[in-house]
Amino acid sequence: MKNLRNYLFCLSFLIFSFLYNAYTQNNFDPILINRLQQELDLSLKNYNDVGASAAVISARKGTWLGTSGYSNPVTKDTITSEMLFGIGGITESYTAAMMIKLLAEGTNNNLYDTIQYNWILDYPNLWTNSLLTIHSLIHHSSSLFDYTEHPLFKQSCYSDSSRVWTPHEILTNFLNPPYSTWAIRFSDTDFLLAGMIIEQETGTSVSHELHNDFLDPYNLNHTFLEVEDTVVGDLAHPWMDIDGDMILDDLYPMPRTSRYSMAWTSGGIIATAEDVANWAGYLYRGEYFSHQYLIQMVSFTPVNFPPINGYGLGTCRFTIEGRNFWGYIGKIDGFSSAMYYLPTDSISFVVLMNSYTGHASQIVENLIQVYLNFITSVDQKKCGSEKINFQLHPNYPNPFNPSTTIAFDLPKASQVTLKILNVLAEEVETLVSDFLFSGSYEYQWDAGNMASGVYLYKLEAEEYVEIRKMILMR
Q1: Residue 71 contacts residue 354 (beta carbons within 8 Å)
Q2: Could you give the 3-state DSSP secondary structure of residue 10?
Q3: pLDDT in tens, 237-257
Q4: What is the separation, in whole angstroms, between the first and last Cα of the chain?
Q5: Co-location of 263 and 346 in the same domain
Q6: I need a surface site. Which of 91, 116, 269, 351 has the fewest CB within 10 A?
Q7: Do 156 and 262 belong to one domain?
Q8: Span 15-26, mean pLDDT?
Q9: What are phi and psi of 125, to 5 degrees?
Q10: CA gap 413, 436 in Å, rounded
């Protein structure tokens, strides 16, 4: 009897493994993969850049990781997908998300709280703006002076590269009076203050909040807030001309403590391209906080900072061939980065480069162009002209244990409900009950407290109703 149980267990495990792999395989078209890699290689060559790590992650098609060039051209060490890069300004999307989640879970706080009445941050040149709010910080509309523009900033940063700068020291030494006219300006001071407020409100470090609420639950294990975290992994060599001789210098041997402690919550994160691409997907699919806060995050004020044409809350808007992308671009000494997310297709594009003069945003747009051309050519080959319809996709993985992802498409803004039912059609849980804009969506169901068996998931949107089956196998 014992042998029979063992046999059945092994058989069940093999069946589960087969089905799991079948649903989690990479479904990227081989032709598209080849074209993306060719474009990455060609772009790097045309721009005469050092090296690049790229990631394209689709909620339904899987993951493509590509690399090109060198970490160290002198020793011919090539870039690998596992290498870490400084992501610079993309860090602000993480800080904004932490702030929004903190306020979303609070009882009295909101994005328009006036800072001086809720948080004691008493520094010269800070309180000349009596209407300074959380929103104005993560919207870059505070008019606060950008401390990185202070005449003594660079000299102080490089005079002792192993020094740890505290936010208090930065605001005390490098904060000039605010700008005289209102406009959206990318000021590192805004997100430095946001980091200070996160610490004051939570009583813990920013890195603790980042890992506890955002990184660890989603297995983003290759993302670190430098100085606060212990960085584990191989950092790509950063290249930058620091002595003005028009030759790139390898910054790898230099301590990065001063540079990254000064960047902190405005630019101090180090990560892999894959982690950043996954981050974009989780963030902009609304997995970190409720839809109402995501709407605020992607409510854009028009700006003219090409390629950025709109700015929300820790999020930039880019437009390519009439399609709006959300994300961020950034630089920090020796690195440049670009993160674009296409909400209609639930797909993220990331390029991280190990040179300060790197053309990350141009290369990521080149990859996007390859993708758009490919899907257009595929659509043209289909019989007839197919438009996006209401559609509920198969969950993945299936069978699953203990969580699975459910995706659906909306051709127009609709009132939507997505429910989990048992085999008796009794409601188990409501995953969505909200008004959603047109586009593609994904939601995760965690069945950690449910028994093994068959479950149903039901989507209702306008006149559309569909039910699919899934299997929880422990």
Answers
A1: yes
A2: helix
A3: 999 998 889 899 999 999 999
A4: 21
A5: yes
A6: 116
A7: yes
A8: 38
A9: 70, 10
A10: 6
